[in-house]
Amino acid sequence: MIEVVSQVESFAIENNVMSMEALVLQIGELSSVVPDYLKKIYPMAAEGTMLENTRLEIEIIPGNARCKACSQVYNLLQENGKCPQCGSEQKELLSGREFFIKEIVCYDTDEIDNKNKGV
Ligand SMILES: [Zn+2]
Prior knowledge:
By secondary structure, the protein is an alpha+beta fold. It has a domain at 2-61 and 94-108: 2-Layer Sandwich (hypothetical protein PF0899 fold). Helices cover 30% and strands 28% of the residues. The chain is built from three helices and six strands; from the N terminus they run H-E-H-E-E-E-E-E-H. It has helices at 2-14, 35-46, 108-118; strands spanning 22-28, 55-61, 64-67, 73-75, 91-95, 99-105. A three-stranded mixed sheet has the order 2-1-6, covered by helices on one side. A three-stranded antiparallel sheet has the order 4-3-5, with no helix packed on it. Strand 3 and strand 4 form a beta hairpin. The chain binds zinc ion. Zinc ion binds next to loops.
């Protein structure tokens, strides 16, 4: 998590982002990352960085696979890793192991826009 925080921080510096409101992560439901645990440790990881006092939002990406036997696409967790159509366990993983920084939400942008409209 500390790694993610420093990644976001250097991204923010590169893009002249002065203050952030929230960090949005996308996490695959098959990844080893536990969202609740991340939320718990986030304030500690962010402490003393630019991300201090920001909100952490997590979007879960479903773990989908395509059956190699019949090409059916299904959710691995819902179907226990077996194709619901033909029962085959031969599959190709399509999604679910992601760990992405999706978005950094900054409130500054909106404020600047509003000021410009007023002029
Ligand atoms: Zn199948």
